[in-house]
Amino acid sequence: MKNTFIAENPSVLWFLAALSIFSLGVAMLSEVTGIGLISTSFVKVLGKTLCLCLVAIAMDVVWGYCGILSLGHFAFFGIGGYAIGMWLMYARTEGIVLDNLATQTIPATPQEISDAIGNQIFGLVGSADFPLIWSFADSLFLQLTMVVVVPGLLALVFGWLAFRSRVTGVYLSILTQAMTLALSLYLFQNDSGLRGNNGLSGLQNIPGFEDTPQAAISIVFFLTSAAALAVGYVFFAWVVSGKMGSVVKGIRDNEARVRFLGYHVESYKLFIFTITAIVAGIAGALYYPQAGIINPGEIAPIASIYLAVWVAIGGRGRLYGAVIGAAFVSLLSSWFTGGGAPNINLGFYTVQWTDWWLVLLGFSFVAVTLFFPKGIGGLFDYLVRKPQ
Asked: Is 3 a residue whose pLDDT tops 80?
């Protein structure tokens, strides 16, 4: 009798139970649905952390399970944020423009309305015309479609070109980093159509819910992010289990042998690369309405390197390890850079953690690599499993 999916992956139930308890606890302690012990700003931090956990899982699948060290997956995360951000900014600006024009004696024409919206959005970069990429910005459904289609299509084309040429190892990592750098540099230009260095702002103001307090919006996004993380965890646990999971892990360990056994390695790698890019885009679409702003700096190569560091610290090759690493580093980063950690006065020098946090993160990465190569998840394995 074949074992069921849950029997083969007991960590799925444990993870879902822990996530459910955590989500319920936050809801009960929040300002809107609970007793108000957790502030709205911290609920947003937790919601954003869940989104980072989701993209970390995607990174773990493509790197920890398939062996592809992608230094460009945060670019897909940012693309998802830009896609939903375009609709948020357009719809919010349209509402403001219509309210202003409603006081006019002569009703404005559709072209005048469009020009006014364009001037509001792009006036900051010296333009008033809508670029071609904003063609669907007035449709929530189409922009949500772009959240999936654009990262997926970019990953599909890039992956097909790279994998069919059998680019592997560090060369593939350099290619993904080059792709990310090129995209970031392009978006920094004012004529990119996405407001250059200014990016898209005011994304926390959800059109149609202007009178709804941010406390209520934040808890909705938090719970939605938790649901997305749960679905993503179960989906990827299914992907990396069974026959497909064995082939994917075989590619990681010995790609030539898997190819010799008759498997079309490139197809498996392309599937993993593309599906993880799509999930990264979805995570970004949930993250940036909670962050409130997105700019090209979010897509810079350093962001994808941070993503790899999170997975390494948590323990690659373990889905829960990626979640632990992303949550651990994200929350610590918020604490150190947000002024929560007290400065240390050494007499001759004062250690300010807002300046030294990245140094501490770098030392942590080196320490984990040297002394705990399996990451925090590996320590967890050691605690819950008795040595043989």
From this structure: no
